[in-house]
């Protein structure tokens, strides 16, 4: 039986576990076994262990966020107050800050927990400013959270906890996605938390970056048992992997024809960043190149440019002898983004890995041996028939790597392949990639914010400059420029009135039965966009792209159902109706801030439902971006989901299996992450919520 305590215990530990054990519902094996741990005020404890050992489960158990399963032992939390729930007084920040930022403005984001606890709106601004000062984040309360760097977003998440004055702060893999500057900022916050008397519990598989602030070290093994260890030896590098073995391939000769040629390249890094300029290098057959740089330096943008997914502003870029285009590089180039889970769509590990091999023409009688060889190299032989959607993060990452290597690409692009991996998984990645380069002559370009971490396994390194340094050279302020604000719209209509207008337009779109009526609705929506939306031309460009994709898909489905060309006319009309029903929603979102939307919906909906609806709108652009990245990655695995592939009916199922299925899986995963982030900050603790007074 588990005992939960939330009373005052100033002289004792903040949290105490005594022989605590837990098993997920329907599972026979214990995930956590005989866990005994206590943390006092002002102490910082680190729990390390391999990927999938149960570190995140331990944090969720302490926060009270696990589903009801089998439990035994004692878990006692002393918050120093007579709190209403076991979770009060305990804060948790998970690894990815992007899925934990539930509001659009910095002030509203930090105040989210205060709203859930019905704090008076007049008290919120001062408490929010104090929390932001505690994490060293001095920005306007109206600043967009999407304009913050990764490190700043992580600090904003911590501020969202501190505003509720927790006695225990828990951080799950806090250093995984941060560059050295971001890590230093988080370490400074941990020191301030300890000085203020708060307890800190960190789960991470790499102790070196944070050992200077840790008081006690623990190790959680693969069986779920916890034991105390000492600090790691000083002076070890952060990525202390195995040294390369003998017999490695010598560096390519300068006389070889470059596989990749980059000269004086200029890349746009976004509306709020300086361009990356003056980049020049060549990559030859079988060469391995590491690209280092802090968050925001342009590493991912460079990877996407090499794949032909973004066009350079200036300079020369050729890949395999010509400017890069996805249609030409499909089957010859492979790309693995940071989160390979979004690329999974098959039901077994074998089929997931075999997909690229089949699409790239590997004979069927050779596929079994190829897949088995890759899985054996990556230590996955026992998972041949397992579902790729039920693996640990490390296992999924290795399956994703095997899936792109199976196509035997000439060029392999890896975007931060070690983020979130323990040393065992990182060694397997290095081994497999090095073998691919040496045996098959694959050219490898991989990125990392760990300067020098890949040096023993690469032929050359490229270091991208820090964006702050580039601004300093041009005498520009280091702070990120605020995106164009919504007040720049020509006119502003009351949120309630605009909601009524947009809902009416959507209903009229479904009632439209003639082309003339649809044209009239288009004119009205165009007028609303130009008058009430900030950056209307940008919104119209995005809308045009969305309309073309939607129309192509609907016409395709109608053509399959009713035949060509009979189904084309009906498909175009239905596509127009759907888009005209959807477009007013985009106008409404663009013209209003999230707090305005919540307040308006809250007039006739329960406050919790109003917030959920507004949050869905807030994460829609993120989901569309994820869908685009899924499509990009699948194209290079051999999926026929480019616009030109629509000409061949035999590839139409790829749009469903290779794009829609992974997108659906990602949607469900994103929904679960958002729900977890909201619950961790006490969303739903009261039937009604107060509202952030800002805009």
TrEMBL record:
It is a multi-pass membrane protein. Residues 15-247, 260-491 form the ABC transporter domain. GO terms for molecular function: ATP binding; ATP hydrolysis activity; ATPase-coupled transmembrane transporter activity. Gene3D superfamilies: P-loop containing nucleotide triphosphate hydrolases. Keywords: ATP-binding, Membrane, Nucleotide-binding, Transmembrane, Transmembrane helix, Transport. It is found in: Membrane. Pfam families: ABC_tran, CbiQ. GO terms for cellular component: plasma membrane. The keyword Amino-acid biosynthesis does not apply. The chain crosses the membrane at residues 516-533, 545-564, 570-592. This is Putative ABC transporter ATP-binding protein. The lineage of its organism: Bacteria, Pseudomonadati, Thermodesulfobacteriota, Desulfobacteria, Desulfobacterales.
């Amino acid at each position: 039986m588990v005992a939960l305590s939330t009373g005052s215990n100033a002289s004792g530990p903040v949290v105490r576990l005594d022989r605590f054990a837990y098993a997920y519902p329907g599972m026979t094996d214990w995930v956590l076994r005989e866990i005994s741990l206590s943390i006092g005020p002002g102490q910082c404890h680190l729990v390390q262990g391999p990927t999938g050992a149960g570190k995140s489960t331990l944090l969720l158990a302490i926060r009270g966020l696990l589903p009801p399963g089998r439990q035994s032992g004692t878990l006692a939390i002393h918050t120093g107050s007579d709190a209403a729930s076991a979770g009060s007084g305990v804060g948790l920040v998970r690894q990815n800050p992007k899925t934990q930022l539930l509001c659009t403005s910095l002030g509203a984001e930090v105040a989210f927990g205060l709203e859930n606890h019905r704090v008076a709106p007049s008290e919120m601004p001062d408490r929010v400013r104090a929390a932001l000062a505690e994490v060293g984040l001095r920005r306007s309360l109206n600043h967009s959270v999407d304009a913050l760097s990764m490190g700043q977003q992580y600090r904003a998440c911590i501020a969202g906890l501190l505003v509720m004055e927790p006695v225990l702060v828990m951080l799950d893999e806090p250093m995984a996605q941060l560059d050295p500057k971001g890590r230093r900022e988080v370490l400074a916050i941990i020191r301030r938390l300890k000085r203020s008397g708060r307890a800190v519990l960190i789960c991470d598989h790499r102790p070196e970056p944070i050992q200077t602030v840790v008081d006690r070290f623990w190790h959680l093994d693969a069986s779920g048992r916890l034991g105390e260890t000492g600090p790691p030896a000083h002076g070890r590098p952060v990525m202390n992997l195995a040294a390369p073995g003998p017999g490695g391939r010598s560096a390519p000769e300068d006389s070889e024809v470059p596989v990749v040629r980059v000269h004086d390249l200029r890349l746009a890094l976004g509306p709020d960043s300086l361009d990356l300029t003056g980049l020049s290098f060549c990559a030859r057959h079988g060469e391995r190149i590491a690209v280092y740089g802090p968050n925001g330096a342009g590493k991912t943008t460079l990877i996407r440019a090499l794949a032909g997914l973004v066009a350079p502003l200036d300079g020369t870029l050729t890949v395999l002898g010509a400017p890069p285009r996805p249609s030409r590089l499909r089957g010859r180039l492979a790309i693995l983004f940071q989160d390979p889970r979004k690329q999974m769509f098959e039901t077994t590990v074998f089929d997931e890995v075999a997909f690229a091999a089949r699409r790239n023409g590997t004979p069927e009688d050779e596929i079994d041996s190829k897949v088995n060889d890759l899985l054996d190299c990556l230590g996955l032989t026992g998972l041949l028939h397992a579902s790729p959607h039920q693996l640990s993060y490390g296992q999924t990452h290795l399956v994703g790597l095997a899936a792109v290597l199976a196509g035997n690409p000439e060029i392999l692009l890896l975007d931060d392949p070690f983020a979130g991996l323990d040393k065992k998984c990182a060694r397997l990645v290095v081994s497999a990639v090095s073998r691919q380069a040496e045996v098959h002559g694959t050219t490898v370009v991989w990125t990392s914010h760990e300067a020098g971490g890949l040096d023993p396994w690469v032929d050359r390194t490229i270091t991208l400059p820090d964006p702050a340094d580039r601004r300093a050279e041009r005498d520009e302020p280091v702070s990120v420029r605020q995106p164009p604000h919504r007040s720049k719209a020509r006119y502003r209509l009351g949120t309630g009135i605009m909601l009524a207008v947009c809902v009416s337009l959507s209903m009229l779109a479904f009632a439209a039965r003639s082309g003339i009526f649809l044209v009239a609705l288009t004119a009205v929506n165009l007028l609303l966009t130009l008058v009430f939306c900030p950056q209307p031309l940008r919104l119209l460009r995005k809308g045009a792209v969305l309309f073309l994709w939607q129309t192509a898909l609907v016409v395709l489905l109608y053509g399959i159902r009713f035949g060509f060309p009979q189904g084309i006319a009906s498909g175009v009309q239905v596509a127009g109706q759907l888009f005209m029903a959807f477009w007013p929603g985009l106008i409404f979102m663009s013209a209003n801030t999230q707090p305005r939307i919540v307040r308006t919906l809250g007039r006739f909906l329960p406050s919790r439902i109003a917030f959920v609806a507004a949050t869905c709108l807030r994460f829609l652009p993120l989901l569309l971006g994820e869908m685009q990245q899924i499509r990009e990655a699948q194209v290079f695995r051999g999926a026929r989901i480019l616009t030109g592939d629509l000409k061949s009916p035999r590839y139409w199922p790829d749009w469903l299996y290779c794009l829609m299925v992974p997108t659906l899986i990602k949607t469900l995963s994103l929904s679960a992450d958002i729900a977890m982030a909201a619950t961790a900050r006490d969303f739903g603790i009261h039937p009604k919520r107060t509202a952030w007074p800002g805009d």
